[in-house]
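Follow-up to my earlier ticket, as requested here are the two runs.
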Amino acid sequence: MKAVYLNQKAGPEALLTGDIPAPVPAPGELLIKVHATGIMRTELEWFPTFFQKSGEPRPFPIVLSHEFSGVVAALGPGVQNVKVGDAVYGLNDWFINGAQAEFCTVGASAVAPKPKSLDHVQSGVVPISALTAWQGLFQHGQLQAGERVLIHGGAGGVGTFAIQFARARGAHVIATASGGNVDFVRSLGANEVVDYHKAKFEDTARDVDLVFDVVGGETLQRSFGVLKKGGRAVTAATGAGDSSDLRIRAAFMFVEAHGSQLAEIAAQIDAGKIRVFVADVFPLEKAREAYARSEQGKMRGKVALRVVDQ
């Protein structure tokens, strides 16, 4: 199959395009004909990208990007309730090859029917960001209606979903964003938006029930000061799980594949409650350019790779 892959532990400048063996679905798995996937520029810093669960190095070639939208091409033994030809979206295992390829494998429980109102490119950028926001707010953060939540990075891939999910749940949303995105973030449903170039979020966000962070660093450190007594912090920032600060380590989450949550997210998208934003689209063979675009930041949504012309 055609794929974009790494043959060494390196950055996106080392990505190659060529033919590698197609994966075969194991029991309980699906083979997906990938139509589109999303770019996660931090993936190259994650442990599972280059190591197995045992700690041993992963064999090359390594294919990046674990979220996808596509069509079921084959069923592994024992799979039920899914048919060849079904249009699905999902998130495959972090420790196996991903979706920057014509085919990938995934556990059957990690997919859901793709949103009917979206095409494959739009659906392909949803799973990681939407599941991170959903799990961060509701699973780890236990956000309830009427609570005050501070969401950092409101215009980014995760932040756009987090704001919309939190408002739909009935929370009061305070979000941070750069100046050019203030109106955009407000249009997503944020009650208050702090332009972090002009003001400190601490001056606006006080007595917060939940901080949801994907920025990390000093932003996260300062965020603990705005929490009310008994308030919670959740971060999905890369490296936070290895922090020497026990508060940060306790707040760290890592997104997990979850087909039933993706089904609920698709239902909200198709009902018009949640909007999806694609910052830019590149063909598979332009993966290096896609990473370069992603590195520029200041985007609304996420960069997508189109694997199949639509």
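Run two:
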Amino acid sequence: MNHPPPAAPVAIVGAGSIGVAFALVFSRAGLPVRMWDPDGGRRTAVPIEARARLEDLASHSLLAEAVDAILGRIAVFDELGSAVEGAQHVQECAPERVELKQELFAELDRRAPPEAVLASSSSFLPASSFAAGLPGQARCLVAHPGNPPYLIPVIEIVPAPFTDEAAVLCAEALLARVGLTPVRVRREVEGFIFNRLQGALLREAYCLVRDGVASVEDVDRVVRDGLGRRWAHIGPFETADLNTRGGIAAHAERMGPSYARMGAERGQADPWTPELVAQVERERRAILPAEEWEARVAWRDRVLMAALKARQGA
């Protein structure tokens, strides 16, 4: 009887909270995981922390296998070279310091198999800042996850101008196969998409507290019991599209001036020009034709009702 060849391992460099979380993502999907961290204490903590998180997932019926089976695919190594040997993908999860990542990626480029993709979990730093000029720069990119990635599946794929398209496609395919939702960032910007959106909200939240408009708890309550309930199911563009009869173009016409004035209060001058609104309108109508708008509004309300019922039953 012929058995399929074993899957090539995934290497995780850095055993902090994100590194351990990534280990669960890959091992839960059936892949062998090799982990390394320069700190012996972190290496020792990996099986303890991984088991605790897996047991929490099991208690919510979110595992298809026994905890020990998943843990059995995670190995911790004392040497970086041993951890990356034979890896098909290396996920770097080191602290957000450009000098550290420069040194680490230079070493990974020397030690990892030439066909392995080298991906950073960087939250803000683009690959151009730490991988430019390496012999293997074409296989380097950012794969920035939500935290924790075993619960928040979106992962931003951010190639540098020098990243080869084959490496991007390889990373996207692997990450989709293990249950994540890759989103390609079309060009390098600090903070990518996730943290730019999160940062915009957080900057305004700080300003509202500073200006005596609201307390910290009030801001959190508005997001938790207001914006967050919608955003759990639809994003900001779809929210605006469904909130105004006539869709997002009508929303921009009615609400755009008010948003522009609020932005001006913060020294921000980014008007929603007619050309920009038209682009957003075209993309939204390609996703949701105008004749399906009413049905989608009804769907939105039903998913909010289901979420409310689930909250009340919790």
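The only thing I checked on run two: Residues 194-313 form a domain with the N-(1-d-carboxylethyl)-l-norvaline Dehydrogenase; domain 2 fold (CATH 1.10.1040.10). Let me know what else you need.
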